[in-house]
Amino acid sequence: MAPTTLSADVLVIGFGKGGKMAAHGLADAGQRVVLVERSANMYGGTCPNVGCVPTKMLVHYATARHLKDDAQEYFADSVEGVRALTSAFRAGNFASLDGKPTATVLTGTARFTDPHTVTVGEGDDRVTVTAPTILLNTGSAPVIPPIPGLATSEHLVSSTELTQATALPERLVVVGGGYLGLEFASIYQHFGTHVTVLEAAAELLPREDDDIAATAREILEGDGVRIITGAKVTKVVDRGAVARVEYEQDGETHSVEAGALLPATGRRPVTDDLHLDAAGVKTAANGAIEVDEYLRTSRPHIYALGDVNGGPQFTYVSLDDSRIVLDQLLGQGERSTADRVAVPRTLFITPPLATVGLSEREAREQGLNFTVAREKVADIVAMPRAYTVEETRGLMKFVIDADTDLILGAALLSIDAQEVINTVALAIRHHITATELRSSIYTHPSTTEAFNEVFGKVTPGH
Ligand SMILES: Cc1cc2nc3c(=O)[nH]c(=O)nc-3n(C[C@H](O)[C@H](O)[C@H](O)COP(=O)(O)OP(=O)(O)OC[C@H]3O[C@@H](n4cnc5c(N)ncnc54)[C@H](O)[C@@H]3O)c2cc1C
Ligand SMILES: NC(=O)c1ccc[n+]([C@@H]2O[C@H](COP(=O)([O-])OP(=O)(O)OC[C@H]3O[C@@H](n4cnc5c(N)ncnc54)[C@H](O)[C@@H]3O)[C@@H](O)[C@H]2O)c1
């Protein structure tokens, strides 16, 4: 049987957020779009299948657990809840794109054979796709640090396996205390696992201000997570039902044992199977596809969106990448990565830590004239919501330009921080002052009404 050949106006490789949204936009505009995804378990990409959605649902389940619940049974039910939701989202993602009259989803690994052509799949099932415009959206994969014994350990688990596991490990060691590591540490500790985090940096969350990082650490440790900073992991040795992880701290050797071992030391762009050489697309030393501010690669008809282009690894950044590419292909071609201002982040521990803009330390390092508005969540009288939901841990902090009253940054370690930070980011983007935020009307009881009070607790920055 001769291989099938398809031609499209636009070929999208990878069903991540950016590729998906671009494919929808282009198909809605009448263009013939072929989207290639290598796994039938990944329609919609990392976020809804093995990333944001399952982990945030696990945060929800884990924190709702009662001590009277049987830990194993509750965990298994929670994972089943996640599986049901992710399956539904996956099916929806496939159907909503493939169901469009001018869009086709192909399942298989795409490999370039020349700058305008890829093959998908193998043998008789192989399909050849050609297109004048190609979007690369192949995402990222975990880095396994070169620690002797780690990659070959029977106890090595991936974040994906942890979102799909059927048995709750008694003990979990997480190597790396960044976004992924701390989220899993918090989730699993709440489910009842004993979690140890081994972080190489001298302090946890080193980019945050000391007071914020210390409060986050206090909360995690208060929940029972053991956190070891300044830890150099040297060796992993399997010993039957557990792995022994050896590490050095302050020149001394220690070890910790666990049945599950999660490397959470960053994620690298996925380009391995693409045969980018055949397309003439260049990558940087870190493996990311090189792009300009319009996300054009070294081949102007090929764009790269999402984690694979080396930008910040967040779903909403991949989404914004799709806006830039759609503006190139259907619009005025003006939108670029340079337009991004005040992009917020949320670390989904419990309560979450959401940040935007400058920290106090960064404002100081930049020599700015600033003030700091800061208050512990438990002390914010104007925000009884924390008491009504029985989560009064945390700290809210704003960095304010002392000359203009504009907000330079915020760190909110608080219930609902993942929502409230978006209002702060909007205020920064649209030049709304701290005084205006302080004197606005908010619903009650809500977390946003903390603004009414915290912006009044101002001290000079130093
Ligand atoms: C556990 C976890 C939790 C996270 N939580 C959050 C969060 O709460 N909030 C947030 O904003 N971000 C979160 N992230 C990050 C976020 O998931 C990623 O930044 C985002 O999903 C990246 O999307 P993308 O568009 O780059 O591509 P992806 O969604 O990664 O999709 C890439 C797709 O390309 C496919 N592919 C790869 N190579 C080929 C090929 N050669 N041919 C065909 N298909 C191919 C892959 O199978 C995959 O489906 C989390 C990540 C993880 C791992
Ligand atoms: N809520 C969210 O938005 C969310 C959640 C999970 C993941 N993500 C995305 O996924 C990306 C990957 O997450 P991540 O946590 O793997 O990476 P990360 O870069 O956020 O953190 C990696 C951590 O590992 C530490 N580390 C590196 N090598 C080490 C070693 N050998 N031993 C001990 N510690 C070591 C680093 O110091 C750092 O603290 C993040 O950058 C983030 O953008 C986002």
Automatic annotation (TrEMBL):
SUPFAM superfamilies: FAD/NAD(P)-binding domain (SSF51905), FAD/NAD-linked reductases, dimerisation (C-terminal) domain (SSF55424). Belongs to the class-I pyridine nucleotide-disulfide oxidoreductase family. Residues 9-319 form the FAD/NAD(P)-binding domain. One of its GO terms (molecular function) is flavin adenine dinucleotide binding. The keyword Iron-sulfur does not apply. FAD binds at residues 56, 138-140, 307. Coiled coil: none annotated. PANTHER family: MERCURIC REDUCTASE (PTHR43014), PYRIDINE NUCLEOTIDE-DISULFIDE OXIDOREDUCTASE RCLA-RELATED (PTHR43014:SF4). It comes from Amycolatopsis iheyensis. Binds 1 FAD per subunit. This is FAD-dependent oxidoreductase. Disulfide bonds join 47-52. The active site is at residue 444.
